[in-house]
Amino acid sequence: MTVFDLPGLEAGEKRLTAVTLEDGFWERGDARDVSREMAFIQGRLDKWRSVEREMEDLETLAEMLSDADDTELSSEFYERSAALARSVEAEQIYVLLDDDYDMSGAIVTVHAGAGGLDSQDWCEMLYRMYLRWAEARGFDVMVLDETRDQEAGIKSVTFEVKGEFAYGYLKGEQGVHRLVRISPFDSAKRRHTSFSSVEALPILPDSVEVDIRPEDLKMDTFRSSGAGGQHVNMTDSAVRITHVPSGIIVSCQVERSQHMNRAIAMQVLRSRLFERTMRERREQIESLQGEKRVIAWGSQIRSYTLQPFQLVKDLRSGCEIGNVSAVLDGDLDELIMAYLRFAKTGRTVGSSSGESGKNAGED
User: Which of 37, 63, 91 is the last residue of a domain?
Assistant: First the structure.
């Protein structure tokens, strides 16, 4: 079922309505997920039913105009037609966001790469960029874990972005981001290249099963190093969980309660284990099919150049933006949309066929 599959949406609405009417529905563990999906489907149906009604009205106006030369009626027809075209164009984003869990919230982690203070400062710049982007969209952001350097910057930060399609928008940010600039930490004012990596995971619905055995977990507690008041910093409320078989480590120190921090850390662990399983399956299928990716997971995806010229370039979609300051201030929509189109069609910005996408990763 997709957002343009009206019969599928109507069938989904009917199915979920029946589920919500079952006895004990609100005591079910997935009641919130079902309600969220129901609201999404109803919102899409309301939108397209509105489009259908407007189309019928415009057809009536067109018939009236064919029989009479009415300037006022003609003006109304073209104004409403233009408004409808803009509305339909805005809805086309959902064609690009029809993968599993695209409509979910996102868990984003930014890690500083090698390079000391420059990379840590770059990590903090990226973190601020995503905060500004989320703020502009009205999304809620909660920091789950943050490791700051005493001298400057952030070594790593994990935060949750809640909002409709947050993961769908941010999934393309996953990979290595490169910054070229005159280092503010170099007394000789030399140009430095810094790297930071971004990881984006979906916030999984409770209905998604991820096999986590208690005996595979190692839990440590420690004092929170972030802001949060005297109580947080004076008690061992922060939690670090290690999944021994995979080596995945997650931590959370945002809540005063150790129990709450453990619950949030487990949520992050579920998402990371799920993404790891899905990635391994994709790689296995591609290996069997003999396919080669243009851009492998975790590789460099985007360059931000501040000196000797200013340019942001996405190395997959080919999207280039000269206003680096605006991008670093959260204006990411053009880059995000270009990647989503590239992911669906294989076409780079300005290309007329999918073949040009094969060199998109070249810099």
Answer: 91
Tokens of residue 251, six digits: 């931590």
Q: Is residue 15 part of a domain?
A: yes
Look at residue 354 and tell me if it is in a domain.
yes
* Letter string b/e over residues 176-209, b meaning 16 or more CB atoms within 10 A of that residue's CB: bbbbbbebeeeeeeeebbbbbbbbbbbbbeeeee
The alpha helices in 241-360, defined as continuous H runs, are: 258-289, 324-328, 333-345
* Residue after which a domain boundary falls, among 243, 266, 289: 289
Interatomic CA distance for residues 189 and 181, integer angstroms: 10
Model pTM greater than 0.90? no
- Is-cis flag, bond preceding 245, omega within 30? no
- Residue range 3-21, pLDDT digits in tens: 556 777 788 888 888 888 8
Unique residue bearing structure tokens 């999918």: 354
CB 256 within 8 A of CB 232: yes
Domain that holds residue 154: 106-200+298-359
Q: How many domains does the chain have?
A: 3
Distance CA 196, CA 131 (A): 16
Q: Which residue, 39, 51, 36, 59, is CA-closest to 4?
A: 51
Q: In 5-160, which ranges are continuous DSSP H helix?
A: 6-20, 31-67, 71-91, 93-96, 117-137
Take residue 274 and report the two structure tokens written for it: 């799920």
**Rounded to an integer, what distance in angstroms lies between the CA atom of residue 248 and that of residue 13?**
38
What is the pLDDT confidence band of residue 90, given thresholds at 50, 70 and 90? low
The rounded distance, in Å, linking the Cα atoms of 305 and 190 is 14
Which structure tokens are listed for 120?
Answer: 């840590």
Domain match, 196 and 242 both:
no
> Mind listing the pLDDT tens digit for each residue in 269-318?
889 888 888 887 777 766 665 544 433 334 689 999 998 899 999 999 99
Statement to judge: residues 303 and 178 lie in one domain: yes
Whether residue 174 sits in one domain with residue 32? no
Contact 278, 309 (CB under 8 A): no
Cα of 213 vs its chain's centroid, Å: 28
